[in-house]
Give the backbone structure.
Amino acid sequence: MDFEALDEGGSVEKSWRVYSVGGGALRDDDTFEHTPAPVYPLSSMKAILDHVVKNGISFWELVEAHEGPRIREFLELVWKEMKTRGFRQLFSEVVSGSCFRGKRFRFFEE
């Protein structure tokens, strides 16, 4: 994506090209090769499942351990939304089989 700052006459005064590289991360031409350190040491679902079972913890506890306690407010908001809208919609479509007939999910529509 290109961002441009224009002067009063409409000429480009400064520009910045930024790339979305996934996971919410952005890179520009100066930082494109930079790879940030991973937040989580586990990189597969199998490794995560093995870890939580071995240590007797929940997924949210693993997330909080690596993200810090401030993540809890966000996780609570996500859980609330899943319980009130998304999960019910998903569950009803899976049980009815409608999600397998090309019907798209409507998680965020109201």
User: Anything to note?
Assistant: Helices lie at 45-55, 59-67, 71-96. Residues 97-110 have pLDDT under 50 and may be disordered.
